[in-house]
Specification:
This protein has about 250 residues and is an alpha/beta fold. It has 9 helices and 11 strands. The strands form 2 sheets. The chain has a 6-stranded mixed β-sheet with strand order 7-8-9-3-10-11, sandwiched between helices. A 5-stranded antiparallel β-sheet has the order 2-1-4-5-6. It starts with a strand and ends in a 5-residue tail after the last helix.
């Protein structure tokens, strides 16, 4: 079953060249799609368009079979909220509320968006914090946490909303190298549990190992896509070959 369908999506920012130039792909339920590519290739913009954090100029995006935008025309606000409610977004820079405790960050949207009773929201949050090995940090504030801990809280916050799809925008890019592993391990566990995910990452080996399907983007286009190990081991375009030379595989 297709849970994400992106069809010929185009996006241009004012006074800039085209950022997305006819992007098309699908993601099946339980599948992990990895997206790699150089800075400025449109990866993060694509993810933000899927999450409706940016609007597209033309094309269509379907989430769980329902049109968020069809032929450049967006659905109504009520339908939009329902459709995007199926998505969880994990940002590069955590985006936690600094004035709220860890527990508060996780229960806030549950209570105010999902209308979950507070006690139930707290139990859900505590279970997720236990899964993230952060039970002892429930009453801490984001400024008291390491970057890796903050990112695990942001993943727990996204999961608390019971999304069908998780979108990761370079989830380790703001972390020191020694903290990267703990986030990658969380994503590995979610993949093993068959969580549907789109992961934009600069961790090439991780993308190869975690993804069911891999996309290489450059200049706002999909240059190559296919099985991750084949794509990394045998790139067919000069653009991907040049890109991979920067990494030790």
């Amino acid at each position: 079953m297709e849970v994400i369908s992106v069809q010929n999506v185009k996006k241009t920012f004012p006074d800039e060249a085209s950022v997305l130039n006819g992007i098309s792909f699908t993601v099946e339920a339980g599948e992990v799609l990895g997206i790699i590519g150089p800075s400025g290739s449109g990866k993060s913009t694509l993810l933000r368009c899927i999450a409706n954090l940016e609007t597209i100029d033309s094309g269509s995006i379907y989430i769980s079979g329902k049109p968020l935008v069809e032929n450049g025309v967006y659905t109504g606000k009520k339908s939009m909220r329902s459709i995007t409610g199926n998505l969880g977004f994990v940002f590069q820079n955590f985006n936690l509320f600094p004035h709220m405790s860890v527990l508060g960050n996780i229960i806030d949207a549950q209570i105010h968006v999902l209308k979950t009773p507070k006690e139930e929201a707290i139990e859900i949050a505590k279970k997720l914090l236990s899964d993230m090995e952060l039970s002892e940090k429930a009453n801490a504030y984001p400024c008291e946490l390491s970057g890796g801990q903050q990112q695990r809280v942001s993943i727990a916050r996204a999961l608390a909303m019971k999304p069908q799809v998780l979108l990761f925008d370079e989830p380790t890019s703001a972390l020191d190298p020694e903290l990267t592993g703990e986030i990658l391990e969380v994503i590995r566990r979610l993949a093993a549990e068959k969580m549907t995910m789109i992961v934009v990452t600069h961790e090439i080996s991780f993308a190869r190992d975690i993804s069911d399907k891999l996309i290489f983007m450059a200049e706002g286009k999909i240059m190559e896509e296919g099985k991750p190990k084949d794509l990394i081991a045998h790139p067919t375009t000069e653009r991907l070959q040049d890109f991979l030379k920067r990494f030790n595989q």
